[in-house]
Design goal:
11 helices; six-stranded mixed sheet; disordered N terminus
Length: 321
């Protein structure tokens, strides 16, 4: 959604009602040719909450969000953004909805601070751009043209532009992609502040720790459908299994190790292993004995609860897309 010069007709100046729906999707379908990229999705995001939409590449989450932003027209189903139709009521929604696209969607010839100041003039009551620039570090590259910014700098500028108009609902697509740890935490702090101020935040991310840290509600999409939803705690607690992780010699014979432990063993990244299932103290003893027989050097071993990433991989599989 683009911004509007001032508050458009239809803008509701009422106070936000905590926990009320800001986004409602029912039976959403979007086809490209004969293929349904979005195939009957239902989703609700509430004011004063962060809703994380997760899914593998090609799962349909971006198309779903684009329908909510008025960038694509659904083939079936309904979408209501702050109670309005994102296509028919686009003018009324522009002052109330912030959008941060993953690629930024920013003009490249203008300087960063000038771009943010220009966007701020499009709103009747924008945030103080000095304060916003300082907390997101935009001041450090204020005089640099957008085309010369790093990926992380562009992301910070795009986030500032998405929230400068004090939106009631903001869509954030991979908000901390390409950022260093300091920038990520600054972004996370701003997202929490938006939520605490009653803003509805819809977050799409591939970073499971980001979703686990920020989300009040999680929706997992795959093959164009919702396959799981709930709080992080409820999704993680759906199994009593624990996870054992260890770093060791790359490319261990996983089938033999799985047979020895009578549990599933995977190698999510080279030299880093994960054992899932009914992990207990005897598992650790069996593992260390097996690794000693293989002359494998262990540099790290931890046992803990399942994470959101574990749940995500269990739901969507481990094969590349």
């Amino acid at each position: 959604m683009s911004t509007a010069p001032e508050t458009a007709p239809g803008h509701l100046d009422c106070a936000l009602v905590p926990d009320s729906p800001a986004l409602e999707i029912s039976g959403l379908v979007k086809r490209y040719g004969s293929r349904a990229v979005v195939d009957g999705i239902d989703l609700v995001a509430r004011q004063g909450q962060v809703t994380a939409v997760l899914g593998p590449n090609g799962a349909g989450k971006t198309t779903t969000i684009e329908c909510c932003e008025g960038l694509r027209e659904p083939d079936a189903g309904t979408v209501r953004v702050l109670g309005l139709d994102p296509l028919a009521d686009a003018r009324a929604l522009r002052p109330r909805v912030g959008v941060m696209l993953q690629d930024g969607g920013l003009p490249t010839a203008i300087k960063a601070r000038e771009m943010l100041a220009h966007v701020a003039t499009m709103y009747a009551d924008p945030r103080d751009i000095g304060e916003l620039s300082e907390r997101l570090g935009v001041d450090s590259f204020a005089g640099t043209t957008v085309r010369r910014l790093s990926g992380g700098q562009r992301q910070r500028l795009a986030l500032a532009a998405a929230v400068v108009g004090k939106p009631d609902l903001v869509f954030l697509d991979e908000p901390s992609a390409g950022m260093d740890p300091q920038s990520r935490h600054a972004v996370w702090d701003l997202v929490r502040e938006l939520r605490d101020d009653g803003v509805a935040v819809v977050l799409t991310t591939h970073l499971m720790d980001e979703a686990e840290d920020l989300a009040d509600h999680v929706v997992v999409i795959d093959h164009g459908r919702v396959i799981a939803s709930g709080t992080v705690a409820s999704l993680v607690a759906s199994s009593t299994d624990r996870t054992l992780r260890f770093d060791s010699t790359p490319d261990l014979p996983l089938s033999a190790l799985s047979a020895a432990l009578r549990l599933t063993v995977s190698e999510p990244s080279r030299g880093s292993y994960m054992v899932t299932g009914a992990v207990d103290p005897s598992t650790v003893a069996t593992l260390t004995a097996w690794l000693a027989d293989e002359d494998a050097l262990v540099t790290r071993l931890t046992v803990g609860r399942r994470t959101l990433e574990d749940v995500f991989l269990d739901l969507t599989g481990r094969s590349l897309r």
